């Protein structure tokens, strides 16, 4: 399980940034951090999470600096693709809760609750 922080090391609220379009998934933390600086115009060491998606759409990478070191998380879906904003939207900020939905393969834009009645017994 990827730990999704709720506060940055400077006690601010954590932002989750989606880098629209697709990214070369051979990149590691350092190369992705450069993309964060140059494309998203953000500081990759501030404690926010930055999410990148591969061309096929079934793989994402998340970079996060926890105040002690750099973290790089990868998730591949066995079936389907991650829901992703169109490249014309630029960087998109979502909540940590929406990231949780995304990591489960659920449409983070409009999650649906499935009612499952409990069986008495």
Q: Specify the helix fraction band.
A: 10-25%
Strand tally is 5
Q: How many domains would you count in the coordinates? A: 1
Strand order of the largest sheet: 4-3-2-1-5
The profile of the biggest β sheet is: 5 strands, mixed
Give me the strand/helix succession: EHEEEEH
Rounded average pLDDT:
84
Strand content: 15-25%
Give the overall shape, derived from the CA principal axes: globular
Low-confidence stretches: none
Terminal-residue CA separation: 32 Å
Briefly note the structural class of the backbone: alpha+beta
Whole-number radius of gyration? 15 Å
| Continuous helix count | 2
Describe the structure.
- The protein is 15% helix and 21% strand.
- It has 121 residues and is of the alpha+beta class.
- It has a five-stranded mixed beta sheet with strand order 4-3-2-1-5.
- A hairpin with a 5-residue loop joins β2 and β3.
- The radius of gyration is 15 Å and the shape is globular.
Chain-wise SSE layout:
Blueprint: E1 16-18, H1 29-38, E2 49-53, E3 59-65, E4 70-76, E5 92-94, H2 96-103
Parallel strand pairs: 1-2
Antiparallel strand pairs: 1-5, 2-3, 3-4
Which key features would you list for this structure?
single chain; 121 residues; alpha+beta; 2 helices; 5 strands; 15% helix; globular
Question: Short description, anyone?
Answer:
With 121 residues, the protein is an alpha+beta fold.
């Amino acid at each position: 399980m990827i730990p999704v922080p709720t506060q940055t090391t400077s006690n601010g609220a954590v932002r989750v940034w989606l880098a629209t379009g697709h990214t070369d998934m051979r990149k590691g933390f350092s190369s992705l951090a450069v993309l964060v600086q140059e494309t998203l115009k953000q500081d990759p060491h501030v404690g926010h999470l930055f999410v990148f998606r591969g061309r096929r759409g079934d793989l994402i990478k998340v970079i996060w600096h926890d105040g002690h070191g750099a973290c790089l998380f990868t998730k591949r879906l066995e079936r389907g693709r991650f829901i992703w904003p169109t490249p014309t939207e630029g960087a998109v900020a979502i909540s940590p809760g929406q990231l949780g939905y995304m990591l489960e393969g659920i449409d983070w834009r409009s999650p649906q609750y499935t009612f499952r009645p409990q069986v008495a017994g």
